[in-house]
Specification:
The chain is α+β, with helices and mostly antiparallel strands. It has a single domain, classed as Nucleoside Triphosphate Pyrophosphohydrolase. 23% of the residues lie in helices and 39% in strands. Strands 1, 2, 3, 4, 5, 6 and 7 form a seven-stranded mixed beta sheet that branches. The longest helix has 13 residues. The N terminus is likely disordered.
Amino acid sequence: MTTLSEPALDPRRAARRYPDRPIVGVLAVVMRGDRVLVVRRTNPPLPGRWGFPGGVLELGETVAQGAMRELFEETGVKAEEAGPLTVIDTIDRDSEGRVRYHYTLVAVVGHWRSGEGVAGDDADEVAWLTRAEIVERGLPTAPALLPLLDLALRRARD
């Protein structure tokens, strides 16, 4: 059952709510100079928040393949994967403490190859922004966005 504040989910997304085990997701962290590609999410979890393009890993694909597929589906941008950045857990509980969503997310670094970015699939807006622009604009972000960006920036300097 949905509430007024919660949009109806398609069956595929609805099956991800209240899972019996974590779902493996992938994120594409793509830098272009001092800017990073970010998307404003359309669908739960975290609709309206800015984060990295990503989604659920499909059966038979590697983490890198999944991240680059999701990147292209959400933004039209192509990148060459450059390896995993880190793994994070995203666990969302309802008011009763039950796990509503549980994703184990693998962030993959990608080297930009082509595309400016056009919102598609799960994104309603796409932007190339610096860390400072994200902070200065006060964008509502996914909790992992800035820590992952900081990690990617440190890795790029090393």
